[in-house]
Structures are given as structure tokens and as C-alpha cells.
aminodeoxychorismate synthase (Schizosaccharomyces japonicus), 696 residues
Amino acid sequence: MRILVVDCYDSYTYNVCDMLQRISKDIHIVLVHWDKIAEKIWSNLHVFDAIVIGPGPGHPNDYSAVLNKFWETNIPTLGICLGFQSLCLYYGATVEKMSTLPWHGRAATVITTGESIYQGVSEVKGMRYHSLYAHNIPVKDLTILATTKEDNLAVAVQAKRAPHYGILYHPESICSTHSQTVINNFLLHVVKPSTADLPTSISSYNVRPTPFVDYSVQPCFKVCTQELSWFDPLSFIEKIERDNSFFCFLDSAKEPGEFSMLGFTTGPNAYTIHYQKSIDETTFTHCVSQQQNKKPYNIWKAVAEFMSERKAVGGLKQLPFHGGLMGVLGYEANEMTKKSASEYSRGLNAFASKTAESYVDAELAFVDRSFVFDLVQKRVYAQTLIKEEQTLENWWDELLLSDSDATSNSLSHKGDQPKTPTVTISDRKSYCKKVQDCQSYLLSGDSYELCLTDHILVQPSKSIHDFDLYKRIRNHNPASYAGFMRLPHITHLSASPERFCKFENGHCHFSPIKGTLKRTPTTNIEVAKETLLNVKDSSELNMIIDLIRNDLYQLATVNSVSVPQLYSVEEHPTVYSLVSHIYGDIKAPTTGWDVLAHSFPPGSMTGAPKLRSIQLLEELESLPRGVYSGIFGYWDASLEKGEFSVIIRSTFRYHNENIWHIGAGGAITVLSTPDGEFDEMLLKVNSVLPAFSKSN
């Protein structure tokens, strides 16, 4: 069966595709953007057995010039959410804002007629994401098939003159029920489904992404591993890092941690990599010779090519990292945002340098020398990536002998505690106004959820050493994804609690966080569960769960994405968080790097639909986010595994400034209160800010 799926730039379209493909392995899908449908598609609509018009932001009238063409055919067509509204509008119904608050991310009870596409189904749960609704539906042209129990809203219709159907709720959502039955009933209206593949001339217009490169190349590096006597990683770094050298430290600070990793750029095969979005250029610098190689395209493709040429074999299988890529990818390192870090040079803040080249949107290192610390077994491994013709060099003894006290567990801070810094942060009134602006967009149907953030600038009262600052942040808020990275342009200090994506041997794992509760003497995990499992926080997380499922479905194998448990509450040193876990599988030639690229930036930091939300947030937020809201972590040289976390509860500095940047914010929904969102933003800032001052 051949199905054309029309994407209206929603963040759930790939969920729709997966829902269809779960019906039968014989379903062949061509996915097209609504505003970029080639003439070849229009002139060959007859080759499709069915059409599905997906959800999207805005009013259906904005899409009418294109979508009405589908309603003029006799091809079985199903419209979802925006598609439902488009069908109703085509037949003369009124589509406008709801008179009550929209049900974004909330499931309603849907009562059906038990007929047509609802044959055999009398009641379903339907996840609602709409801000607009259809009324004055012309019953001479449309039959109402389902309404909501809670507010008696028409949520499914059928045209009387053609096999056209509309569903207002999202059947593809994780929280909707009986969707496979409903979709299968729709597909039964296809008279003579084709079992043949689509003609190449048509299938070539499919916009589904593909891997950047063919990673099935012969390895050119081997991993050499040497087990050493145990030493404490923090104490060791304290002894060796005072020369301001570049290194990357991924620190499992929250107990019980499993592994920490320390990567160096001192070997003969090491590189640093930085990306400048303003000129769309990725630069690779060989750390020994300082020779540079520039690629005139984005970092995702450039790094994919680079790593495919440095594939490694060997090493201990139980270790997560054997050398390879470590670093940070800032929020603007994507094609959806227009801003870039270079805008700091335009005087957007009083501390900025005027040199645009000083600001990079991503910075990574290819480390050929590393230590991995097994925190459970108290074991340390020195690892080296070498080429076949190279001889292994003992580089670790010199480091370990550089100070005989490296095995000390002392974590004393050097120097005086800093005095109160100068902090630039939005005032309550201006931030609350932005929250209200977000809610106006939500009510008009432009977004379901907007992750608004503030950009805080911190100028220390005197020079503060970056690793001392990291230790204070770590002591105040030890986190699962803590880390310290000092690279040529950026220093990044993290106390992040949130995994973005972990991938290993074809398995991917996302862990989005939504909903934060401050820890107090009177709260415990049971109180946190009762408090966080409320309508607002759970609906926030529902929207991001569906968004991440969508991002993962772009490259995941059919029927592999799962959410075993919708919600759980995690305990952190300063807060409790509501979290979910989404899993999916990929197969060669796709790698975790491809999944990262097509899931970036993290949906928990944008809102949904992702593209439209990013565009709206860029209007509301005066400064680029920079490193904040991006990701940091590692990609192993085996190309088989890696892990990246979301850059929150963190601070970073561009080396041409004497200023530290902190980002913080929250997801704005129609249920948010402006003052509550401002207080939540301050709560998150204070997971990092106290480290800059001698008092909290």
C-alpha cells in the first residue's frame, strides 16, 4: 500500500508514519513537506492508495491553498489535528480559538458512534494538542463520528461525498488508545491497495533523513589499554591542570556513579574541532602541528566524515569510552535557529568582545589519550588510540609522577572564597511579560509548549580559577552528568541531571526531564511524586515524550520505539524532577551520531512543535543561548557507543571574556503562572550561582 504523508512542520509527524507502518510491513510511505510538494507528486497523486495530512502549528486557513487540493480528490484521506481542521474548514465550518483553556498534552475521553473508522470501538482516550476547534459543522456535508466526554467537542468527522476523514486528537500519541484499530479501519477504505514499491521518480522526493556517511569502513586505529593503580580523578586533575591546558572531564558526581572519563589532547593523533555557524564552517586543528583543515558545512556532517576515518577496534568491552570525541555542541548548532554565538560580538552585552571569530557554536576534541575511572570497582585504565604503524608511548607515567600526591583525596579549595559577583538577570516584571507572550502564542495555536529561558551574566569580583569554580558547583550540586571541559574557545562547567541520549550497539535511550520541585526539610520522594504528578507537569512531559518519540522515529527501525514507564521521579541534591525514558533501536549504517543530529536541539529545551517553537523563542529571547540548552558528552571511536547530556544547571565562558554565562528557564504551558515560572527559573539559577559567592 502506498501512502503519501503530508508534514506541516509538526513535531509528531514521524509518530504518524510509525503508526501507519505498524499496520503492515507492506506499507510504503512518501513523506513530503506541505509547502514543498513537487509538481511530480501532484501529477502522480493517483499512484497513492491513501493520503494522511499531519498536524501542524497555526490556523488551517494558512494552509488552504495547498491542502484543499487533497480534499478535491477521491483518494482516501485522513487529516489529523490541523488536517481535521482543514477538512472542516473546506466544507464551511468555523475554526477559531477555544473559549476555554486548550488541553495541550492532556488525554480526553472520546465517545464514538461505533461506526465508520470507529467500527468496533465505542470509547477511546485521545491526546489533545489543539488550541483551535471547529464548530458550526455542516451536517449535510460532514458526519460527526466522535465527541469528547469532558466538553462535548467534535473530534472526528467523515465527509459524505468522498472517503475523507478527520481526527482532532492525536491518535499517534503515546497516551491515545485503540489507534491501530481506528487507522486500520481507515485503510480498509482503500479499494485496491498496491503491493509494489513506489516508482523511483516518486520515492526520491521522500524527506525522511538518511545517515551522513557510510560508517562501515575498515578501522584505522587500535585501542591500547593499561590498568593502573587506583587514584582519585578530582585530586589528580587538581595537580595537573594549573597550566590551563585543554582537557575534557566527564564526571559521575552523583552517587552511586559508575564511570568517569578524562580525555587529553596531547597525543600525536589529537584534534580540536570548532564550528562557527555565522559562516557555516567547521575547523579541525591538529593539536601537535596546529595545522588546520576547514570544512564549509555544519559540524554534524563534518564530524561524521572525520570520525568515519578514525574508527577504532580493541579495548575492554565493559568500558564506555576508549578515546574518540568529547565536547560541547551549543544550542545554535542547528539549522532551525537563525542566531549564532557570533552575535555576542555585536555588543549585545557590555562584556562582549568585538571579535566574532572568538565565539564558536560548538567545540569538541578528538582525544587519543584518556583515563577511564571505574568508580564501583575502584579501577583506572589508561587508553591510547594509535595507528597500525605507530608505537605505543607510555604517556601516563610522566603525568602520574608529575606530583607524588596525586593519589590524595583532598578536595580543598585554593585561595580565598570569592566575594559577591555582579549578576545581570531579568527582573520579575520583564520575565513575566515574556511568559504571557508565550501563552498568547499557545492560545493562538502556534505552539503547544514553549521552553522560555533567561540568559544570566556573572562577572566575578576578582579572577576566579575555573576548576576551583567547578569544584564548588560540584560540591553544591553533585550531578549524574557533571563535567569540566576546557577547550581553546570555551570552558564549560556542568552539574546537569538530564541525559539527552545514550546509544550503544544499536540501542538508543533518551531521558527528558520536565517538572522541578525544590528540596526542603519537609519533602521526601513520596511527597515529590504526589506534587509533581500534577496536570501541568505531566502534560509538559507528555508533549516532550511524544516529541522525542518523533525525533527517534526518523531513523529508528519500525516498531522499536517504546516508553515502558511514562513517568518517574528522580531525587537530586537540590531538587526533585519528573522524568521519562524513551528507547529505540537503529541499525547500520545509521549510528547514534545521526540520531543525535536529527534530534537536536533537545526537545525538552525548545517545546513543540520544535521548529515553530524555536522561531518564536528567538523573537522572545534577546541573546543567543550559546552553549546552554545544547549537549555535551562523548562518542567512542568504535562508533558504536556514546552518551550526551543536556546542558542545564551549568555555566560556561568564552575565553575572550571575563564573564560567565548561566542559562535557566522552564516550559511555558497554558497552565503556567508567570510568577511561578519566574520562581522556577530562579530555583534553577541557584543550582549554580552560589558557587560564585562566599555565601548562598
